[in-house]
Amino acid sequence: MTRAAVIGAGPAGLMAAEVMAKAGLSVTVYEAKPSPARKFLMAGKSGLNLTLEGDFDRLLSGYGNAAEALRPALEAFDNTALRHWAEGLGIEVFSGSTGRVFPKAMKASPLLRAWLGRLDALGVSLERRAQCSGLFGTNPIINDVARDSDVTVLACGGASWARLGSDGRWAEWLQAKTVPFEAANAGVRVAWTPSMQRFWGQAVKNVRWHAGDVVSQGEGVVTADGLEGGGLYSLTPAVRRGAQVTIDLLPERDIPYVVDKLEERPKKVTLSRWLNKSLKLPAVKVGLVFEATGGVPDMTMHDLAHLIKAVPVATSGVMSIDKAISTAGGVSFSELDPDLMLRDQRGVFCCGEMLDWEAPTGGWLLTGCFATGAWAGAAAARYVS
Ligand SMILES: Cc1cc2nc3c(=O)[nH]c(=O)nc-3n(C[C@H](O)[C@H](O)[C@H](O)COP(=O)(O)OP(=O)(O)OC[C@H]3O[C@@H](n4cnc5c(N)ncnc54)[C@H](O)[C@@H]3O)c2cc1C
Questions:
Q1: Which structural domains are found in the chain, ordered by start?
Q2: For residue 175, what pLDDT is reported?
Q3: Alpha carbon of 43 to ligand 1 centroid (Å)
């Protein structure tokens, strides 16, 4: 029987294993950690946004520069196919108000349990604590011993949350050009003045974030070292390029409205109290305005209104890569043929987050991992047939 190896038991690797096992290959998944899919389970802690609603163009548009390279895999296994696949495992899914698709259980463990059961029934073996440190042809070197395999699919993940397994160390032994890893979907670093300390942990809601030509809505949280939260994640590529972050603290109001309100301020009322009373700005938003001006702003009400609509944040880049939800960089598509096989290592395929693509949160990440896992698995099965 033809032997296939998969390196990494995350969503991409397990999907490749499923497809190859269904094609009749004898599949072994090698996972460095003591248990599979740790990052997938972590994703489940925030509800497991599996995929998204909408047509194919909406799906494809999330992958930016890598969209065309990913198109065949996504066409073969798109957001609808992913939904059906999850339902086929007995997992009920639903669409949230923003078109995000989640399992009803809002966690990953029931899906993973059902999936591992299916893989077991298909005869897939899973070796835990099995660290791959290189390849000898198509044979992976696992815990320093080469294992026989006719074809190998690498699904080692990106380079964030290393404690969950995806540490990016595979880039040291893979004989293929990789694009350096960078944080994606990360918070921004800010060296706050001490006066911001009282807002650490507080949410900044109902705002619009800007960086370069990217505009995003959603919540942020002030932390000791910056701003975190889903509202900011889509700004990451722009911030990496050095774009200035500004916040519109009153996205529903225009400048003339804000000026009118500010000009009604009675003489005896402090500015911070008036910002709160007239414009309903909570203390944390007032704090962000004062932080931008180094204290109580000394400016015309007109200038202050403009400031409130675009408060600059003195960011010094994105948060550390290990804290990022995902990473940009990885195996360059120029190293891969359309089947996701390494051009210079025949019989070795790559999939998932270890490829050089990035996408916003909202379901694009897992969809890209499942789709490329299925694509690489199918191509690997064809390769040895
Ligand atoms: C907090 C958090 C929340 C998230 N929420 C969402 C979400 O809701 N929706 C979404 O779409 N995405 C989400 N993501 C992102 C998503 O989890 C990842 O994009 C996805 O898990 C990547 O899948 P993968 O299979 O490519 O890699 P991984 O899931 O990282 O799996 C790679 C596996 O390979 C193993 N491995 C690595 N190197 C080796 C080696 N040398 N030998 C053997 N094994 C190795 C690792 O231990 C790991 O198990 C979230 C991520 C985080 C951190």
A1: 3-183+327-383 (3.50.50.60), 188-318 (no CATH)
A2: 85
A3: 9
